[in-house]
Design goal:
single chain, about 210 residues, alpha/beta, Rossmann fold, 2 domains, five-stranded parallel β-sheet, 7 strands, about 50% helix, elongated
């Protein structure tokens, strides 16, 4: 069987799930759930506390359970999507509300999970979101931008290398253009692939072309 099909909890050990919910019991329950899956977790009871903590450490996943149609919640969702490129945001809803769910998705939410929470489905949805390299952002001016997970982590030099590789240049050609050795290009290339979650050069090109 293809080993890529397996998913192990140790993949999550450096990933932070930030839970935002006014109910402390929900924060604790979800915190336990995701820590059992190997994630780091932190919680906030309101948007202001979340933003303060987010500025200290950017989350890999956000679970946001506030009034979906409220202005503070939507503003927080927009801020997450603009500050944490490619970070999946899961909205929690106390009731099924189709219009609220549509609104949340328009603002860039990955999914809306209705209580009572199906924990197995929820964890699976988070895993699937983290496997994806490319995410859709919130609609802006009638268009929905594409967000590439990890792209904001690239250094200026890594972006240059990615651009040259995308143009089909070899390590030697890229090194000549940038005034550095082919070996240094290879090091930058490896770091780019790691940050963007690319398994090989073909996978890296798929990510770039998809964007």
């Amino acid at each position: 069987m293809n080993q890529k099909l397996f998913y192990h909890s140790y993949h999550n050990r450096d990933r932070l799930v930030h839970i935002v919910d006014g109910d402390q019991g929900t924060c604790e329950a979800l915190g336990v759930l995701f820590r059992l899956e190997g994630f780091q977790t932190v919680s906030s009871v309101d948007c202001d506390e979340f933003i303060t903590k987010m500025e200290h450490k950017a989350p890999d996943v956000v679970i946001l359970n506030l009034e979906i149609n409220s202005r503070p919640t939507l503003d927080t969702l927009k801020r997450i999507k603009s500050s944490c490129i490619g970070t999946p945001v899961f909205m929690l809803a106390d009731n099924k509300d189709v219009q609220a769910a549509v609104t949340a998705m328009k603002f860039g939410a990955t999914d809306v999970i209705t209580k009572p929470i199906d924990t197995e489905r929820f964890v699976r949805a988070v895993r699937d979101a983290l496997r994806r390299d490319v995410h859709l952002g919130a609609i802006q001016g009638g268009r929905r931008p594409v967000e590439i997970r990890g792209f904001n982590q690239l250094t200026p030099r890594e972006r240059q290398v990615l651009q040259l590789i995308s143009n089909g240049q070899s390590n030697k050609e890229a090194g000549r253009d940038l005034g550095i050795s082919p070996r240094t290009i290879e090091v930058h290339r490896a770091r780019v692939m790691e940050k963007l979650g690319a398994r090989n050069t073909a996978d890296l090109m798929r990510i770039v072309l998809t964007s």
